[in-house]
Write a structure and sequence with these properties.
This protein has a domain of 58 residues. It contains four helices and no strands. It is an all-alpha fold. Helix content is 67%, strand content 0%.
């Protein structure tokens, strides 16, 4: 769904966060989404460099992707998509 006017409230439920106001919840969501965006952009840039110079970064990019998924899962443990993701160490 591209437009989901209930996303902010459902993200609060998925994250198991309790906020004093909708504005506080919005700020939490904004900070979380921006951190994810910056991490994805950075991983994208590093992946492009790695595509041209495969000897750089090795498997550490994959480790960073997994680390980001683990971080996201801790922030939204109630999300139905993230519940499908399991990590075996």
């Amino acid at each position: 769904m591209i437009i989901d006017f209930k996303h902010l409230r459902s993200s609060m439920t998925a994250s198991k966060q309790t906020h004093s106001s909708l504005v506080h919840g919005y700020c939490w969501h904004w900070a979380f989404a921006m951190k994810e965006a910056v991490m994805l952009i950075w991983l994208g840039v590093l992946s492009i460099v790695h595509a041209f110079l495969p000897f750089l970064f090795g498997w550490s990019l994959l480790e960073r992707h997994v680390s980001m998924l683990k971080y996201t899962k801790t922030k939204v443990p109630g999300n139905k998509t993230m519940r499908k993701v399991t990590f075996k160490e």
